Amino acid sequence: MIGYRAVIIWLALLATVSPAFGQEQTDAQGDPLPTHALARLGTTRLRHTGHGRACGIAFSPDGKRMATLHDDIRIWDVATGKVLGNFAPKEWVKSVDFAADGDTLICYGRFSSAVYFLDSRSGERRAVAGEIPHPKAIATVSERNAARPLALSADGTTVVAPFMNEVFVERTEKGTISRMQTWLQWLDASTGKELKQIELKDLNWKPTFVAISPDEKWLAFHWAGEEERFVLWDCQAGKTVRHLQDYKEDPLCGCFSPDGEVLVTGGEDKVVRLWSVANGKLIRELAKHENSVRSVAYLPDGAHLLSVSRDHVCLWDCQAGKLVRDFRIENLSIEAAAACPGGTQVAAFLSGGSVAVWDLASGQLVDAPAGHRSAVNDLALAADGKTLFSAGEDAILAWDVDKHALPRRVGSPGLWADQLALVPGGKRLVVGQYKQPPEIWDLDSDQKLKAFAAPADSHRLRLTPDGKYMAILARMAYGVDRQNDEQVYLCDAQTGEVRGKVASTYALAFSADGKFLASDGSNGVIRITTLPDCKVVRTIDESTIGLAFSPDGKILVAGISSQAAFFDVATGKEIMPRFGTKLNYSIGREWPIVFSPDGRTLARSDFQGFIELCELSTGLERGRYEGHHGDVNALAFSADGKRLYSAGEDTTILVWDLAGTGKPMKFAEACAALGEREGRVAYRGICTLSDSPNETIAYLQERLPTLRLPEQARLKKLLNSLDDTAFDVREQATQELEMLQELAIPALQKALADNPPLEVQERLKKLLAQVAPDSLEGASVRLRWLRALEVLERIRTPAALQLVRRIADGPEELRLCREARAVLQRCKS
Known about the structure:
elongated; 38% strand; 12 helices; alpha+beta
């Protein structure tokens, strides 16, 4: 793994090149990318994220593989950091170890007194010992904190595990009398076969940890029951020979020195203790930890010791009793750690879901810094589209989105964030940290400019697009009645002065013009308030954990029952069918919903690892993207709307090519697709035409709609032609009338009122449906040209914009003309 850093840095500096259709694309480290992804910012190597607490790590006996335990178990190649396999045990387990054969994993049950023996490649259960449900649902604090209540012999061939069961004694008039039976089993580490068993008759609770000496002569264990005991046990005599008493709080872990003469323990009092096995006396105390010591292990040389707590890993000189070196990652806690068999490296499983590997001699990280080590919580894209800022619990990083090079760290060491917002101008960054007041940082100097005084306990923020106001959601104190909403403080972004308050629980969104703030409430009501007076002007009786205004401010999108619901801001009414697959979502987390810069596409996700794109005008799905392992926390469109950035719980950012939604179309197919009611097909057509600007402009120029009412004689002739005997004449007249859009409505209504023949009536009714102001009937002129305007806006050449101007010159009452004017305004800005 030592040469891994240089390889990663060299590969990360290579720009990503779009592949041909069907060709597998890889990230900077050579790992496969998901379909339609252009790049991965960060790495999947030695990244093991999940919703539970990371709780186990172990090296194989030959040191070539590593196992980590989270929601599932993953096996890693130590040299490259690549995942070799993963599987989810059928039962919940709290520890993982390799047996001496290197093929068997040994896991201890989290909620049962059982040891599971699994195939390290398939995850198949080979054997189980002591699978008896725990007699009581609640374990002691010591049991919950203990990292591994079983012992593995020094050669990895034998497991010693404690088991416990409730045993019936007798039935009396007052009820059933029972007692707790606790015993130790010696098990073959490869097969799970029982070698021997000893009942611990004087124990009334399961041991919190067990340690076995290298010669397997001694056991050390502690249990917490009605009477706590910490003992040395003679395995040959089968009895306690010594009680160890000089400890203040429960020991949680222990191990013997390679020569078997010293027992080392660590526990909840944050102290590492060395005991003499010969006389049971305390030799030395080592105190540098800030949290409970959860595991201890000697290195093969017998002179050095590793101790692990959530704050750091300590390397001790046992003879001198001195700290040689400590290992930690800023802002992230250490959930588990293990030394490689040769004693040259130590690997730590971090709270963010990544594994850090250090060289013990130098103290340097061996694994290359390729991005975040924790979940990416939020994204902020610079106005020029060249720099992407990402927020994580480990750091704030700035990425060059074109080169995909290694990122630079923003701010001082230790700076991290839950949420980010760029101040207009791109020189300052607002940083939101959980339970901390927001801060403003200067990006040129990496210096903090301001910390807001109120509120001190914030957990969500939003900045108006003009940077004038900031909305800060303050979390209520634990134990407060959650039927009441938390407070959103509207602050002046320059002075920090609180200008008003509104109620909310999770979701906040500003309109693009900064005039409105939308927030949700615990009582199932969405509120729209004006700024800066915070006056409620509209309420919507829905419960949501995600909100977003369309760029024109006319539509509010809310995540409801894991779907996107669309509301008219002026009336509060739902205006179109809800979009998206019904998914599971996590209460207390905001739902990612973002609009493309042109407002035509909505991107949404919940916490299942995939993203859906919606065409706003029709509500049709434009695409679906999958690739993150776990939750998607944030989304951001590129300035041109052709790329989408997604931030994952898996510590990575994926860059999606929104044009790469399928096999490229032929030009004629793409033209026909503009009228499709299948959203994905239509979007492929838009992307194909955008990539052929000259041919597309020539095609559209020939078919440009007139959008002006013809003379009365011509209009009358077209209406009369609807009853012509020739089918071609009737069809041509129908198409020309549709080209008039809303301008044709009065004439069509009058013609229908004259009670023409039935076939003409049907044509008139169909035309009225197609030219109605809000209609987007399949294959209609309006639908095709709305999409054609999207194509021309993507092309943005002078010739393309000239076509847009010709449409924009039409009457104000026509939807196509209004949309063309909006295109010109966006291109101008």
